[in-house]
Amino acid sequence: MIATESLSKRYPRVTALDRLSVDVTPGVTGLVGANGAGKSTLIKILLGLSPATEGRAAVLGLDVATEGQQIRSLVGYMPEHDCLPPDVSATEFVVHMARMSGLPPTAARERTADTLRHVGLYEERYRPMGGYSTGMKQRVKLAQALVHDPKLVLLDEPTNGLDPAGRDEMLGLIRRVHTDFGISVLVTSHLLGELERTSDQIVVIDGGKLLRASSTSDFTQATASLAVEVTDRESELLGLLTGAGLTAQASGHLLLVDIAGDDTYDTVRDAVAGLGVGLVRMEQRRHRIAELFIDEDTTPTREDAPSKEGDGRDAA
Amino acid sequence: MTQPDVAAPGGPAGPAAGAAAGSPPDVIHNIGYRNYTGPRLGRGYARTALFSQSLRGAYGLGRSAKSKVLPMILLGAMCAPALIMVAVTIFANRPDLPVAYTRYAVVLQAVITLFVAAQAPQSVSRDLRFKTTPLYFSRPIERVDYVAAKYAALTVALFLLTAIPLVILYVGALLAKLSFAHQTAGFAKGLVSVLLLSVLFAGIGLVIAAITPRRGFGVAAVIALFVISYAAVSAVQGVADSQEKYHVIGWLGLFSPITLIDGFQTWFLGARSAFPDAAGPANAGIGMLYLLVLLAVIAGTFGLLMNRYRKVGLS
């Protein structure tokens, strides 16, 4: 789908991308990085809108430097920021964007009705978009990226500004874009936790450099673990849990217990109750992914934030 | 192509909506996704789509009723004097129209200025303000297509505004049985004049409007530029006139948009100048200079717009 080869983008003061070589296969790919890691720069280059300083990139086998127009007619783009005029209805707007993508008038109207329905916008679509909720606006933004039935969509931070329920719906929709519509997806986020549930493949970049690219199953090969915090007697609890056949380890005040199955939660609960101590919290963690930021990075302070947020999302 | 959701009673039959008899509640999700296999018409078509959307937008078509009010009032204000003149000509049996075709736009320049001031920001500032421009550039068009489509759309909108009253005058003149040859020649010259005026005004208006995403600022800046430059040129021309330096009057016309058009049509279209004492360009050299300045300003505004959108890009 996408192949870059030592792709670099340097501005006078900053290096936005530094010899990035990635291969993105069909499916849903999560592009993870902190703000300023180079995600948006990469998208601009992939759409053929900003020339790379060096290196090459191809999208759908088309060279971004010379075949930008063909790429843009076969790729959809959903920007991170607001992009909807408030005094126009979703239908009119998406029809116009469909025509801008080269669809004849009748096809543009039919595809608009279909696409808005698929993203879950019904009779609201005839009302001016100024009155829409954030969730509805995100759906329209997704619809305008899908309306011309692209082979690939680039979604820049599609869950930005959504509440937890809205995030889950949007992530489910993104999953369906691939499974039901057969469209490959490149989705960016600074939250690794939400992308690992949606993506088949994850690419992590930081400071314009590739940190890691592999399939999601490699990322989460270690089973998810449970962080348990109790008021007292951690070591006795550890002993009880190990005795019950669970793999557990102490990490400061926390006990990290590998989740073997649904009954793991019951075992932990019963053990805590048996000791008669208070259970402060019990939350799911994908520790391997959190470690990814800490293990492999040279500037741990900058990476702390996303990994913490990632954990927070898992718990939610 | 029938849409199954239309058939579902109660409108938006989401999964939560009650199941009507015979239609399961999740009927919408059963339709499935259909791939698009039809033609993709590419760059030229997209440019035309942007042009027609922008042209319609200049008259508020395809937008809210509120946004139709101002352009329609201005179009009415442009046409009403023409209708009155035609009526006077017919019923008073006058030998000619009270105002020449080439003079009409100069007389009603305030209305044209207001139209540019209102609709140039409408055309480009909105895209900047609501950040719709990145969506356009993610489509199979290039920067030049966006600029050309917007430029052409406002030019045609202005041409309609200025040419429709001329058509009214011409038809009226023929109904009043004025000299056909004389009227046709005047009408043709008038069309050439308002076409150039439309291109010039559209370019200047768009350049100013594209600087700022704030529409109100754009409106004020466009009005200020047209009004102040015209007032300044007229004032200095008045001074030159009172000092009987008629050749200076011709030079001064180069410095405001409407007097540029006036000077051009005085020399090239044989129009009677609206300058003091009808003192247009004094000789062929200055007449040619008017043409060169006119073309340079038009090319310059296009270049500035291209430069402006070089930076806008995606975000």
From TrEMBL, chain A:
Family, similarity comment: Belongs to the ABC transporter superfamily.
Sequence ranges of Basic and acidic residues compositional bias: 299-316
Name this polypeptide is given: ABC-2 type transport system ATP-binding protein
Domain of life from the UniProt record: Bacteria
Keyword ATP-binding listed: yes
One MF term in the entry's GO annotations: ATP hydrolysis activity
Alphabetized PANTHER family for the sequence: ABC TRANSPORTER, ATP-BINDING PROTEIN (PTHR43335:SF2)
UniProt keywords, alphabetically: ATP-binding, Nucleotide-binding, Transport
PROSITE patterns the record matches: ABC_TRANSPORTER_2
Sequence ranges assigned to domain ABC transporter in this UniProt record: 2-232
Pfam families the UniProt entry points to: ABC_tran
Keyword Cell membrane: no
Region (Disordered): 293-316
Automatic annotation (TrEMBL), chain B:
Pfam short name (any one): ABC2_membrane_5
Keywords, ordered alphabetically: Membrane, Transmembrane, Transmembrane helix
Membrane-crossing residue ranges in chain numbering: 69-92, 104-121, 151-175, 187-211, 217-236, 248-268, 288-306
Position of the signal peptide: none
Biased composition (Low complexity): 7-21
Residues covered by region (Disordered): 1-21
Keyword Metal-binding appears in the UniProt entry: no
Listed name of the protein: ABC-2 type transport system permease protein
